[in-house]
Amino acid sequence: MGLIEILINAALQVWYIFPVILLTYITTTPWFKGLWGEFQVNMLLKRLPKNEYHRLKNITLPTDNGTTQIDHIVVSQFGVFIVETKNMKGWIFGSANEKQWTQKIYHYSSKFQNPIHQNYKHLKTLEALLNINIDALFSVVVFIGKSEFKTDMPDNVTHASGCLSYIRSHSVELLDPQQVLDIINNIESGCLARGFATNQAHKVHVKEIIKQKTDQKLCTKCGSYMVLREAKKGQNAGSTFWGCSSFPKCRAVEKFN
């Protein structure tokens, strides 16, 4: 038996390993984690009574500077709920006002955009599209996965089925049945066609935003953005320095070279 035949036979005996490796790789990608998280939230939202709550998912809307993508929208007479999904694990630190939150897994820490701020853009886009009172729009952030909040979170930031409790806690009718139908029609007619091209265009837009943000200097103490400031008094009056944008909460400063 020649060397080539030996190699072919060996490959045939272990062929099943390659699909397993490929599947393992796919399930660890951010794309799959995001998709899996959105699927789980969609299954949760299905528990809401269909005659009262109308679910819309994967909505991409045009904005003045590109597009914005909304995971789920729930429309009811009790308001319009904009749902942002985060499939993460580890400890989560953050507050409503911080620009960035922290994810910590053992000794590894990373920063990510405050999802409340992220969802606020979605909310404002819908406000402009629907031309309704902002008091009828509610932001909901749902964490899926083995994560634990290590700081107090607002009521609209929840784990898994907590989003259902938050949505159901709004029991005052803010919209009449015709308004509900009009909102659904306006969202469906105003969104971009679902598909590969729309998703790719949105990904390009998001990458541009991330690049702009990563080009900015970050505070080494709290992770907020550093801004250029001018000393008003003292021996350094008139000189420029980097100051934390979270001042006075964070007073970190660095020399401007």
From TrEMBL:
Q: Which residues form the NERD domain?
A: 33-149
Does Membrane appear among the keywords? yes
| One Pfam match | NERD
Q: What is this protein called in UniProt?
A: DNA-binding protein
Q: Which InterPro entries match?
A: NERD, Topo_IA_Znf
Query: Which lineage is the organism of this entry classified under, starting from the top rank?
Result: Bacteria, Pseudomonadati, Pseudomonadota, Gammaproteobacteria, Alteromonadales
> What are the TM regions of this chain, as residue ranges?
6-26
- Please provide the record's keywords in A-Z order: DNA-binding, Membrane, Transmembrane, Transmembrane helix
Taxonomy, superkingdom: Bacteria
Q: Could you tell me one molecular function GO term of this UniProt entry?
A: DNA binding
Could you tell me which species this protein originates from? Shewanella litoralis
